[in-house]
Amino acid sequence: MTANRTNDNFTLITAGSTAAVFETTVTYPFEFLKTGLQLHRSLPGVQPFEALGYQVRAYFTGCSAVNIGAILKTSIRFWTFDKASEWVRPPDLPRDAKLTGPQLLMAGVLTGTMESLCIIPFENVKVAMIQNALVSDERAKNGGISSIDKLKGELQASKPAKKTFHKQPIATSPYEVLFPEKLPTNIFSTISELYRHRGIRAYFQGTVPTMMRQVGNSVVRFTTFTTLRQFAPREYQNNEYFATLLGLVSSGAVVAATQPLDVIKTRMQAKDSMVLYRNSINCGYRIFVEEGITAFWKGWLPRLMKVGLAGGVSFGIYQYTENLIMLTRQKRHLE
Fold first, then answer.
1. How many Cα atoms are found within 13 Å in the side-chain-facing hemisphere of 277?
2. In which compartments does the protein localize (predicted)?
3. Which phi and psi angles does 263 have, rounded to 5°?
């Protein structure tokens, strides 16, 4: 019994990790576009994000951080959901019987919570890497001046100087500290930069909206996927092509339900979030008042492309890998 359980865990972890490495890298350019659009504040004088003109490698800025988080997240996603489903399943309910809506909801919440704990530090590093790359590119195109640099003078101008008997020292704007002339764009230097500026808390910015979004992702994704799969004919339930189709459908539902949370999460994980927002609620309020309700849907199209492809590929490869391992085990190659 213990050996079978260990083999099942190995199957789930291997399938999840294999899917994560492939789908994260393939879909990352959409993640770059989505984050760039969400970081842009729709205010007068702030240059809009332009996707065209970047070198190919620029679209993979931050991919290394996301890959690490995705491997951790996806390797436990399916295992966690299966274990959570077992935990919420009544003892007298047969293993092949369908779970009820509330039971699926609870399993999704538990899965999303575990995923969030894995990805939050790497999401902060990713957003910082992308923001550094965007500011550096904007400076290169505009003679060393970016929209961020313009905020330095505006921030200082808004603070009246105090009268003193000695010469007033030149105050350093937070933007001058956060965005010096040379900005790191690789994962190790960005990790060091974040720690130098804000300490350990730099890796946990946006924890609340990230957890809410991730829980929402898992609840919507697995509830939609499992419900559709349960109503499918039995011969399709373990088919990798059908799993890919259901992954696409469930991912579309994820974007529709959680996009505003994703925008707030990105803004709260930006390097200058501590200058702009007091907390996630204040962030949402300022976005609504200053930029309008449509700002909550920034980046929805690239996110739909990213999440749709990721969901389809993830569920499809997961099902294929699981079927392959089960087939190999049946032929006693893993014994």
1. 24
2. Mitochondrion membrane
3. -65, -45
User: Which string of DSSP letters, residue by residue, matches 134-187?
Assistant: HHHHHHHHTTT--HHHHHHHHHHHTSPPPP-SSPPP-PPPHHHHHS-SS---SH
60 membership: H or E segment, kind and range:
none
Residues 6+ apart with CB under 8 A from 296: 259, 260, 263, 264, 284, 287, 288
Identity at 209, one-letter amino acid code: P
- pLDDT, tens digit, for every residue of 273-289? 988 899 999 999 999 99
Q: What is the DSSP letter of 327?
A: H
Q: Is the pLDDT of residue 112 over 80?
A: no
The per-residue pLDDT for range 116-141, each reduced to its tens digit, is 788 899 999 999 999 999 998 888 88
Q: How far apart are CA 149 and CA 145, in angstroms?
A: 6
| Cβ burial 141-160 (10 Å sphere, 16+ → b, else e) | eeeeebbbbebbeeeeeeee
pTM score: 0.76
- Beta carbons of 35 and 299 less than 8 angstroms apart: yes
Phi-psi domain of 48 (left: phi exceeds 0; alpha: psi -120 through 50; beta: other):
beta
